[in-house]
Specification:
69 residues, 2 helices
Length: 69
């Protein structure tokens, strides 16, 4: 949202892609970035990420993941 009282921040972020159980968040971010840009050597700043490899426990979660494939 644009507001004249705040500066425009010229920043980039990458969205899209899936984090699979077999990969960490960092590995997934690298795969997504390389897939989009073609670069495998890059610097990145990660401010905060929440994730847990065992986050998919309920049948509802697993059903949602399977529907995305």
């Amino acid at each position: 949202m644009f507001d004249e009282n705040y500066p425009v921040i010229d920043d980039w972020m990458i969205t899209g892609g899936r984090v699979f159980i077999s990969k960490t968040l960092e590995e997934s971010a690298n795969v997504i970035f390389e897939g989009i840009t073609g670069y495998n050597e890059f610097n990145r700043t990660q401010f905060r990420t929440y994730g847990n490899p065992t986050r998919l426990k309920s049948d509802k979660d697993l059903l949602w993941v399977r529907s995305m494939v």
